[in-house]
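The data are quoted verbatim for reference:
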Amino acid sequence: MCNKSDFDLQEKDAALHERIEFERENQLLKDRLDANKRAWENTRYELDEHHSKMSTISQDNKTLQFEAQVAKSEFKSFKEALAELLSGDGIECDPREDDIKERVKHYRMTSRENNVVSIYETCNK
């Protein structure tokens, strides 16, 4: 037969065992919480890195767009200046690629013709 002290001892053991289980579970929950905090911090860091890269890419894109506009403007100015240089002999050269090419071909042909005439005149002297 169990006496009161055996019963108290069993209650004490059960309470101690329950306390140990609660402490183990509490520690397990703390460890999981710490792991989740680390995962959150890592994810936050990755997100910050992503935002930083996106900002850099956006700035690079703006810079490239600006540089492209500058190059386009410079190219347009170059074609206009070249067309102006190629205009003459009563022929107006538009600052379009095909007109510039045609005008250069014209000058090349004229130059060749002048060279042939010059060589012919030199030979006939």
Notes: The chain has a mean pLDDT of 90. The radius of gyration is 45 Å.
